Amino acid sequence: MKAKHKKWLAPLIALGVLLAVVIWVIWSNVTIKTTVCHIHDPKLPSGFGGCRIAQISDLHNAEFGDDNQPLLDILARENPDFIVITGDLVDSNHANPERALSFVARAAELAPCYFVPGNHEAWLGDEYQEIEHKLKACGVTVLRNEAVTVERNGSTIQLMGIDDPDFVESGSGLFDLSSAILDTEISRIGGEDNYRILLSHRPETFSVYTEQGVDLTFAGHAHGGQFRIPFVGGLVAPNQGLFPKYDGGVYSEGGSTMVVSRGLGNSIIPVRINNRPEVVIAVLHNGPGVS
Question: How far apart are CA 27 and CA 10, in angstroms?
Fold first, then answer.
């Protein structure tokens, strides 16, 4: 009997470990992580000190709970001053946008929402125009190569939004071409005298935002590298390839800061590993340093 027990012990342990891994992967794909980052910038107008910005990115028509209620509960609890949505709200591979639009309509009741389209919106072609119309009908400010002035506590900033490069050159995947397109778009918006916050789907072109003097950028697109390796980071990201430099978190270069969301939904690869869906809450401070 003891020999028989030993014979089955190893397979039972292996089965238990496999079951635990499967449960953990499923749990980590359906539960949302809230990441709070503090952005310190002495250039920030004093009225925006303590401003809370919630970032939603790469939803890809995903649903968390009934009608995305857990996602809305997070936003309500965090009580942001603004909500920024940095592209790929829908997925061009199964473009039934009603679920995502329902979420945005309810989010817009919690705080002013600002949206820029991503590559999946670009890939929808003419179908995207109807989505944009419905977003505006919900009270969302859609920023397509344009800027608005935002006021808080007597201070103002310039909030800019740019189209994904695939609206110009769909599916090219060429870094130099994307950089040139974004550089042109930001230059055309102008407004360098104000503190400038940029919404852009693409993080890999951070050098363009830095060269254009953008103070703070919110981006997505990288999906956190999809599979995250402890102490290493993301494995692969669109337009960055293996071990992407900008996979998620806060980056600073040349006086410019970029916040990259790991996003909420999935696209080509349907599963995340060690990479929970994420809502980012950026808290702004008009002082030195980034933490």
Answer: 26
Q: Look at the block and give the residue holding tokens 């055309």.
A: 188
* Distance of alpha carbon 206 from alpha carbon 186, whole angstroms: 12
- Give the pLDDT score at 288: 75
How many other C-beta atoms can be found within 10 angstroms of the C-beta atom of residue 279? 23
Which of the four pLDDT bands, split at 50, 70 and 90, describes residue 59? very high
At residue 290 the predicted structure's pLDDT band, cuts being 50, 70 and 90, is: very low
Q: Which residues contact 101 (CB under 8 A, 6 or more apart)?
A: 131, 134, 135, 138
Task: Give the length of the chain.
Answer: 291
CA distance 77 to 17: 36
d(CA 116, CA 163): 6
DSSP conformation letters of the chain:
-HHHHHHHHHHHHHHHHHHHHHHHHHHHHHSPEEEEEEEE-TTS-GGGTT-EEEEE---TT---SGGGHHHHHHHHHH--SEEEEES-SS-GGG--THHHHHHHHHHTTTS-EEEE--HHHHHTTTHHHHHHHHHHHTT-EE-SSEEEEEEETTEEEEEEE---GGGTSTT---HHHHHHHHHHHHHHH--TTS-EEEE-S-STTHHHHHHTT-SEEEE--SGGGSBEETTTEESEETTTEES-SSSSEEEEETTEEEEE---S--SSS---BS---EEEEEEEESSS-B-
Q: What are phi and psi of 51, to 5 degrees?
A: -65, 135
Residue 291: pLDDT band with limits 50, 70, 90: very low
Task: Tell me, yes or no, if the pTM score tops 0.70.
Answer: yes
Q: At 199, phi and psi to the nearest 5?
A: -105, 120
Q: Which residues on neighbouring strands pair with residue 160, listed in sequence order?
A: 147, 198
